[in-house]
Write a structure and sequence with these properties.
- Keywords: Membrane, Transmembrane, Transmembrane helix.
- This is DUF3147 family protein.
- The protein has 5 helices and no strands.
- The protein is mainly alpha-helical.
- α1 runs antiparallel to α2 (about 25-35).
- The radius of gyration is 17 Å and the shape is flat.
- The mean pLDDT is about 90.
Length: about 110
Amino acid sequence: MYLFIKIISSAAIIGLVTELARRFPLYGGIIAALPLISILSIIWLTIQGESTQSIARFTVGVLAGFPAAAAMLLAVYIGIKHSVHLAIAILFGIVVWGLFLTVQKFIMSGFVS
């Protein structure tokens, strides 16, 4: 039952944000930049009875993934700005995301044992 509710509520939020973005691209982008998925995930994890330690580890994971996500979005933006086909720009963004995470993991391994 929770799965169905999660799917419907998440789809409704995505639909609302994309409709807002269609009419007001700047405001839609600002709303889309909110960590809606992270917040929803934290709410659902709490409702499903996950421990606060588990939710805290999830939150740290979200923070660790943020720089790579920002790099991915920047790569997609640059691709679109240079008239690259959307699918190629997204693929390029995913590659940048993966490379960024790999480099980030390598750098962090030097600081965290």
